[in-house]
Amino acid sequence: MPLPTENVGSLPRPAKLQATIAAYDEGKVGFEELAAEQDAACRDSIERMEATGAPVVSDGEQRASSFATYPLTDTLAGTGLAPNLAADGQYFAIFDDGHHRQLPRLTGGPFRYKTYASQYVEKSLPMAHKPLKQAVIAPSMLSLLYPLDGQLEDYPREQFLADLCDEAEKDIRQAFGAGASRVSIDFTEGRLASKNDPRNPWTGRRMLEQFIELNNRVIDRFSPEERRNIGVHTCPGGDMDSVHSAEVDYAELLPSMFKMNAGYFLMQLASEKDKERVYRLVGEHSRDDANGVPQVCFIGVINPLDPTVETAEQVAGDLVTAANFIPKERLGATDDCGFSPFSVDDKPRHGSPDFARDIAFQKITARVAGVEQASEQLHL
Ligand SMILES: [Zn+2]
Fold this sequence. Notes:
- By secondary structure, this protein is of the alpha/beta class.
- Helix content is 37%, strand content 11%.
- The protein has one domain (15-377): TIM Barrel (Alpha-Beta Barrel).
- Helix 11 crosses helix 12.
């Protein structure tokens, strides 16, 4: 069997879709027009991803406001915000280029998702001819909706966390129920949790262990057979071609991260400075048996923030090197991150979102070809 390979999830939204989102926020077009643009972008994303030869595809998350806020709001500007939320929550992240992204703020209970990822799967599955994956947001990210300090009146933190775990479980179960072949949990806040950015108070609270515990409260509700197809994605962020936590040493994250009982991990590595050191850490800390499932380690071989397209030879070289540290039965290949986790993203290093889409498909094609070469070299 060749090495498995899978993307994280998102693609840049076409300029036309981003313009329609802005027009929708301004009340100039209705939801039907927005939905038609989203559907067209999903269809194009699936067709072009299938044409790369990728064995598993996604719809590029073209209907989601972002990887983190899709359950809560129709657009990033807050149109269609779910009940019990206000737009002025804490920063999720401040990126290296100075821009930031903000979360909504919980104002009361009960906490419920407004949109489940399965709703995207239901619409996109009929467009696909290959297995369709779906990404979901980690409960740890959404735990940041609750005020950092103190309690909400009539809605204690523990009740919120119990509701959140139920919703996150439902999100995953329904995505599989709608036909997703794989479900990966976006956990970009894991690395950021060790950053201690004084401008962004939650990052200084040493929250990593509680994030891991909370996510396992959800992951452990699934059988080993189900968890084979439940993944976790880690990265230093990827928005507007910028990152938020690349300076955090993987050694701070990986020993904790692999305590999550997921069956596979999608890990940024292409843009890492000392890849071999991280491959070694991955080999040391990932587990053959995470309560009944082996942890398959998909290493990042493509940098979605850099317009330079990797070659298949580079991809194969990274994988063959990684196989010196990670058992090849538990090795796979992925991209460092989604290509545009937030719906509104002009991909400044690429010049435009449409050009960035073209580049993304070239990069995925290189990943798929590189995986084939590496599989041969490793006699798989
Ligand atoms: Zn990411």
